[in-house]
Amino acid sequence: MRVLIVDDNASMRDLLTSLLSSQGYTVVGTLEEGNGVMDAVRKLSPEIVCLDYQLPGRDGLDILCEINSSHPDIDVLFITASVAPDIEAKAADAGSAGFLRKPFGQKQVIDELQQVCEARRLATTNASSQTAPRAQPPQAGAGAKAAPRKQATAVIADDNSSIRLLLKGLLTELGLNVVGQAANGEEAIRAATTHQPTVLFLDVSMPILGGLEALPRILEASPKTSVVMVTGDTSRTIVQQAAGLGARGYIVKPVRPAYVEKFLKQLFNT
Q: What is the pLDDT of residues 189-234, one digit of tens each?
């Protein structure tokens, strides 16, 4: 995997370069400030960007948003020493594929990158092999209620194209037929009305109409659909509000394949 490292601390750049190289990653470049990141992305074609938040010139959150908008196939591992309580949620909603808070250990870096790579592998494998036979929806163990024999369908509603791409790959891998996608709450309502999906994955923070506002209208339009919230904000208020409006649960960003699989097994067998 080709990696671009962006951090204003020289010691951190050296540490990450050495560590990632020892793990088989190819470090294609390092930068110490934010203004040249997008030019480097275009010239160096990294698959992963290790991106610090607080950078001279341009902050990492702004860069993350542009990378996800213009290069949704690139994964961003967001790194910060900030203790702001909402920064992880902001990075997740902006499309970060992973998150590390300084100071961190070498094992944390390796483990987080492995998660990022596995998620991307599943997403890109399914995106490039649409004709391959699909698995059945997740099954539970013996004695549990069986999943529906008919292939389950899904709609994905998220304003971030990178997250939609990732979720589509993961859901396809798990045997669901992704029949629609939406970038805001109004589009999600229309997709639910048209497709009547088995499951609808609904981002909490979206333009025009947010997920919590769209949720009751989605259930009214498609009452048999199980709505699953997708969010980087797991505060008690958000979780309780979503449950009170009829959501069947939530998936936390950054999206992790193992968690999605476990959640769907529980969903199909309750």
A: 999 999 999 999 999 999 999 999 999 999 999 999 999 999 888 7
Calpha distance 100→110 (Å, rounded):
11
Note the pLDDT tens digit of each residue in 19-33.
Answer: 999 999 999 999 999
Question: 138 phi and psi, to 5 degrees?
Answer: -50, 135
Q: Is residue 172 within 8 Å of residue 211, measured between CB atoms?
A: no
pTM: 0.76
Please tell me the class of the 2-127 domain: alpha beta
Are 243 and 227 spatial neighbours (Cβ–Cβ below 8 Å)? Answer: no
Rounded Cα–Cα distance for residues 201 and 197 (Å): 10
**CATH number among 3.40.228.10, 3.40.50.2300, 1.10.150.20, 2.60.40.10, domain 153-268:** 3.40.50.2300
Residue 15's nearest CA partner among 2, 30, 35 is: 30
Distance (Å, whole) CA 143 – CA 218: 33
- Whole-angstrom Cα distance, residue 130 to residue 70? 24
| Sequence-separated (6 or more) residues with CB below 8 Å from residue 258 | none
pLDDT in tens, 116-169: 988 888 777 665 554 444 444 555 444 444 444 578 999 999 998 888 988 998
Spans of all domains in the chain: 2-127, 153-268
